[in-house]
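Protein entry
_____________
===
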Amino acid sequence: MYKKKSYNYLKYGIELRNKKIALFIIQNLKKSKNLSINKLNRLANTYFEIGQYHNAKKTYKKALFLNSKSEITLNNFANFQKSTGNQKNAILLYLKIYRLNKRNNQNLKNLIITFMEQKKYIKIINFIDKNFKNFLL
């Protein structure tokens, strides 16, 4: 069984391993009548941290519906996909972020690491050759 990696995205500095605190955060965020993309991101990340993957996925999709070009949401959703074993979707999301912002070095690192974990070395070489041809000259 694939073991999920733990990420702590919340600004509260709270270890989300404490489920009571996570559930309290979820309740407070859900009380908001108008959930912004930032609040939806925090809500999805909280669901992810406590293992409610279905709710996390649904909430990431809601956030992306509000702004399909949000690099933060796309990155969080890609990390979620990768951590839950869906490497192919993670790569597609990292590629989408790359197309939106070629200067996002953290995303580029995530993309290349995910390719490497999948042992897709030819894809890495082709990606670098295609996107950094002028940079390397």
Q: What stands out?
A: Confidence is low (pLDDT under 50) at residues 1-14. The radius of gyration is 16 Å. The helical segments are 19-31, 37-49, 53-66, 71-83, 87-100, 105-117, 121-131, 133-136. The CA atoms of residues 122 and 134 lie 19 Å apart.
